[in-house]
Amino acid sequence: MLSELTVWIIESIRTHGILAVILGVAIETIIVPLPSPLIVMAAGYILIPQGPLLSVLYNSLWIAIVAGLAQTIGSYFLFFIGYYGGKPIIEKYEKFHGVSWKEIKQFQKKFSKSKKEDFTLFFMRLLPIMPLSVISGVAGVIKYDVKRYSLATFFGVVPRNIFLALIGYNFGELYSLMAGRIDHAETIMTILIVLLIGFYIIGKKTGLFDGVRKKFLN
Known about the structure:
84% helix, mainly alpha, 0% strand
């Protein structure tokens, strides 16, 4: 089904141009298994005409801005699920994962006071291998300020999209192969994030972190 959806979106880009790009990136921002870089790379291949460098850069920037707006709006779906649903879920299943809402709030305060959270979010949005959907959900759970979240997300995905659009333009019909490799790296990154969260939960439940902390403090 996902492959059919991907083919339909790409064919729609050929037919409807930038409007299909808006729909495609909004969908891929929400649906995790859909290859994240594919839509923008396809747009670069299909919509950027051969021409002088300045014209190519202008068209890639246009695609990147429009796609970035759609990605930012699309990311609100998982962001607000985390924003409003994170606390009830964490509190309900605290006995299973061992993480309290109080600890989430403490992390949020430390993260906010560091004054680096906006740059951190911007940087994570910038990297093509970082999973957009996972980041959106986590940002919602820690109740990231909506305005700052929107700005950091948009200004992070725009240069990311320029890079992907130019890859699509330069690699031609090989863009789907390149998109698959980038998506594979993104999948690995998603697994690593899930494993880190799992390791943290196990460490909390087993008291491993407390034991290590006491050992080093003593």
